[in-house]
Amino acid sequence: MVALVEKVAETSGSIAVPAGALAQVWRASPRQHQIAALLGDDQVEVPPLDLSQSLAIGALLAATGTSDVIDASVVVTAGERKHWVVTSDAGDLLRLDPGLPVIEV
Hints:
The structure is a single chain. By secondary structure, this protein is mainly alpha-helical. It is globular and about 35 Å long. β3 (85-87), α6 (90-96) and β4 form a beta-alpha-beta unit. A two-stranded parallel ribbon has the order 1-2. It has six helices and four strands; from the N terminus they run αβααβααβαβ.
């Protein structure tokens, strides 16, 4: 993750962590120091699950016949920003968007 943040910094890019995805992993534990550090980086934004995104997510779920709101929020957020997705769960995300650029960890 450190290497990814450094690479993004070199390109003046940004990192988006969808609010729902963050809520799914956050446990407010000292063991999550790396996530906390990532969130404190100026290049990192946490896009909210607002009306516009909610409608886009719902439409994606309907179109794909799936139901995971968090996975769909990751796909929609990446698509809006033309970002790659770093994940350990590429299969579910690629079912939502087979053309999604993914880095599997």
